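queue> pop job 88
queue> type: inverse folding (structure -> sequence)
queue> payload:
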């Protein structure tokens, strides 16, 4: 049986996406929820956060909409989860409460700073 994953991608999309876990990664995967995965999104590759396992794919297309094939994840980026699976409902609540365009910032906020290699700016007092 295929192992489908619900993944929140670090990109401005309004919902999480469904991806397929390749068999070569399934045997060494362990716990998946809370880990990052490198996934294809259009013509690029982005970081995603695994929210659920063995989920049937999201509704792929409604009447009159273009349908898409479910793509495989490229790789798992972490050996262990970055956040506990019990935090997922909290992140979903934050996302729905803030009515944000993208839920990714709240998932990124639940992980260690700098883990995605992004530069962070900090503000501080000028000591002149």
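queue> result:
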């Amino acid at each position: 049986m295929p192992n489908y994953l619900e993944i929140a991608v670090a990109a401005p999309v309004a919902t999480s996406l469904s991806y397929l876990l390749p068999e070569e990664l399934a045997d060494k995967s362990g716990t998946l929820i809370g880990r990052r995965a490198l996934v294809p999104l259009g013509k690029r590759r982005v970081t995603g956060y695994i929210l659920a396992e063995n989920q049937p794919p999201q509704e792929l297309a409604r009447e009159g909409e273009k349908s898409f094939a479910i793509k495989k994840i490229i790789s798992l980026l972490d050996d262990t989860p970055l956040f506990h699976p019990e935090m997922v409902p909290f992140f979903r609540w934050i996302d729905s409460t803030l009515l944000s365009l993208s839920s990714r910032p709240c998932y990124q906020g639940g992980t260690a700073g700098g883990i995605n290699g992004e530069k962070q700016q900090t503000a501080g007092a000028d000591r002149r």
